[in-house]
Specification:
The protein is an alpha/beta fold. Helices cover about 35% and strands about 25% of the residues. The chain contains five helices and six strands; from the N terminus they run H-E-E-H-E-H-H-E-E-H-E. The strands form two sheets. It has a three-stranded mixed sheet with strand order 1-2-3. A three-stranded mixed sheet has the order 4-5-6, with helices on one face. The termini are far apart.
């Protein structure tokens, strides 16, 4: 025991630092992820709103939403406020699309300069292009030519 500081440096237990005040909610969301793992193919991503302390569970089919409701409201109830929303695309599908497009821009767009990523709030891959980029016209046309409803093009300056 360190007499000066009053703690035992050999102690094996740590007290987690909860800066956000959401440690319990985070633990519960981890538990929920585990419960929903069998529905991963339909998972549109979970969204946490800290202001309202609400978890939104997104699934791609009504059947998957019903299973999620049953799990979280009846079988293994959660104490979190939960909303259930049907979305068009799974989180995996959007991630795979982003992983296929962003690193290979030179191949499909003929130039690089597109930023962005998966936005689970709008259930799309967002592609950001600076209108002042020297290749902006080429990049904008390339994204438009993809003609993919999973992609949202945002042009900024």
């Amino acid at each position: 025991m360190d007499k000066k500081w009053g703690h035992d440096p050999e102690a094996s237990e740590w007290l987690p630092l909860d800066i956000t005040g959401e440690a319990l909610a985070t633990e519960e969301m981890d538990r929920i992820r585990g419960l929903l793992a069998p529905l991963a193919a339909y998972d549109g991503g979970m969204l946490w709103d800290s202001e309202t302390a609400t978890l939104t569970v997104q699934m791609t089919t009504e059947d998957a939403l019903q299973q999620a409701r049953l799990l979280l409201l009846v079988t293994s109830p959660t104490w979190l406020r939960v909303l259930f929303v049907q979305v068009q695309y799974s989180a995996d599908e959007l991630s795979e699309l982003a992983d296929r497009l962003f690193p290979h821009q030179i191949t499909w767009a003929g130039a690089t300069g597109i930023g962005g990523g998966v936005d689970h709030y709008i259930n799309r891959v967002v592609m950001l292009i600076d209108r002042n980029h020297p290749q902006a016209g080429t990049l904008i046309q390339a994204v438009t030519n993809l003609d993919d409803p999973r992609i949202k093009l945002d042009i900024y300056s």
